[in-house]
Specification:
41% of the residues are buried. The longest helix is centred in the middle third of the chain and has 28 residues, at 153-180. Among the domains are: 1-18 and 372-445, no CATH class; 24-236, no CATH class. It has helices spanning 2-17, 34-50, 82-85, 91-106, 109-119, 123-138, 141-147, 153-180, 186-198, 216-229, 238-255, 258-264, 272-284, 288-301, 306-318, 322-335, 340-352, 361-369, 374-386, 390-403, 407-420, 426-444, and strands at 20-22, 30-32, 59-63, 70-71, 77-81. It has a five-stranded mixed beta sheet with strand order 1-2-3-5-4. It has 22 helices and five strands.
């Protein structure tokens, strides 16, 4: 029983973190795209190594939010807002942000903040902690102000004092990680200069004790010495900048209006990133024939790139060219057999075709590598339903619902699946995890 409770709690916590949306979604949420995640992983890898963290365990997660923000909520994920990625100029600046957030993990700040919340003995202290979490995670100052209403000024200063110390510590540790990774520390100064320019009040009017971060001028003063002592020059890394330009270009092409991208990327530009951006924009207009023709040029230019093949599959699928989409996704899956999101795309394409043989197989392969994507589980539920396996359809649908926070829909589906699946089987245990997670969530309300 204890092991089952642990699994259910882990399931609930993971669901709370990983509420996923496809890249083309407009609502705020977590943006999933294999190309962008691979590119950011390439940038983050040297920083993780320099900090002594396992790159295989750490994940970079992109939040669809225009506010230039980044944060950590646990010891395995670094969250970057899309608005921040679209504002930074170089790969080194992205690596500077990641290094700062990683330093919060290695410095034990997450554990201390969790302990502070656990030990908070007054409503005022709890309100402050929650308001800080809301600001860090969403940038929503109005919500934070509502939560923190009634908190005394003295308590506020005590909490923010700890936060300022942590931020200063993370700056110093982060810049050391950058130097170890061969990333010029000057990039962290460039990021701070950007934020300094965005501060609404003049620094002479700001109360340094009423902020969750040290004043930018103080952070800059402290870090200039570290940067000056480094022997690394600010020479750009062509490979790192390529991957950042590619991730930023794709993100911008999906988020910004298509006309914006088409104005900024001339048709005469035949580079792979330019072709990719134009193809996405043309697809969104929509101009399907032009989009598919542009993608054909791109794939011919980079025939062994699995992520461009995956994008071609997405555009073909959403243009209702189902058989061609399956072909493109199969090629992508052959080039990157361990990429779960490509397997998910292949499963989606197979769902749209008339050939339903072994329908769940591709999606199950994806679930084995990334079992916490509600869109994947929703497609898997559909695949099982179409193949006549109703119990497995109910199970996957229940997991998809709980990931979206809908216990009301998840509970009866999980109970139905548990009743139909063999007691003690893997499927039965998964269904029980959903039931237990829902019961835990309902008790906490």
């Amino acid at each position: 029983m204890r092991q089952m409770r642990v699994r259910a709690m882990r399931l609930l916590m993971t669901f709370a973190l990983m509420l996923c949306l496809p890249l083309s979604a407009w609502a705020k949420g977590i943006l999933r795209d294999p190309d962008i995640e691979y590119a950011l992983g390439r940038l983050a890898g040297p920083i993780f190594d320099a900090a002594g963290l396992s790159a295989a365990r750490m994940k970079i997660v992109v939040i669809h939010d225009d506010q230039p923000n980044a944060f950590v909520a646990d010891t395995s994920h670094v969250f970057l807002h899309s608005g921040l990625l679209l504002r930074l100029d170089t790969a080194a600046e992205v690596q500077a942000v990641i290094a700062h957030e990683v330093a919060h993990i290695t410095g034990g700040h997450i554990i201390r903040r969790q302990a502070n919340m656990k030990n908070a003995s007054t409503a005022a202290a709890l309100g402050l902690l929650l308001s800080g979490a809301v600001v860090a995670a969403t940038g929503n100052g109005e919500a934070a102000a509502g939560i923190a209403m009634g908190v005394t000024g003295s308590a506020q200063r005590v909490l923010f004092g700890h936060t300022r110390a942590e931020e200063a510590s993370a700056d110093q540790a982060g810049i050391r990680y950058m130097a170890r990774a061969g990333v010029p520390p000057q990039a962290m100064l460039d990021v701070l200069e950007m934020f300094r320019g965005q501060e609404v009040l003049s620094e002479s009017r700001q109360d340094p004790y009423a902020r969750t971060h040290p004043l930018t001028r103080e952070r800059l003063r402290a870090l200039k010495g570290y940067a000056a002592a480094s022997k690394l020059t600010a020479n750009p890394d062509p490979e790192a900048n390529y991957w950042y330009a590619r991730a930023r270009g794709k993100l911008e092409a999906f988020i910004r209006p298509p006309a914006y991208t088409l104005r900024r990327v001339p048709a005469s530009d035949g580079s792979d990133i330019a072709l990719m951006r134009r193809a996405v924009a043309l697809h969104r207009v929509p101009k399907p024939k032009e989009a598919m023709a542009t993608m054909a040029r791109l794939v011919a230019l980079r025939p062994n790139d699995p992520y461009y093949a995956e994008l071609q599959g997405q555009i073909l699928l959403e243009s209702r060219q189902f058989d061609a989409a399956v072909t493109a996704y199969r090629r992508a899956a052959q080039l990157a057999p361990n990429e779960a999101q490509i397997q998910t795309g292949l499963g989606r394409a197979l769902l749209a075709t008339t050939n339903k043989a072994n329908l769940p197989a591709a999606l199950e392969a994806a679930r084995a590598r990334d079992g916490y994507d509600p869109n994947l589980l929703r497609h898997l539920a559909s695949a099982y339903a179409q193949s006549g396996q109703d119990a497995m359809a109910a199970l996957n649908a229940s997991e998809a619902h709980i990931m979206r926070g809908d216990c009301k829909a998840a509970m009866p589906l999980a109970q139905r699946a548990a009743a139909a699946l063999g007691h003690g089987s893997v499927g039965w245990n998964r269904a029980q995890d959903v039931v237990n997670a829902c019961e835990t969530a309902l008790k906490r309300r």
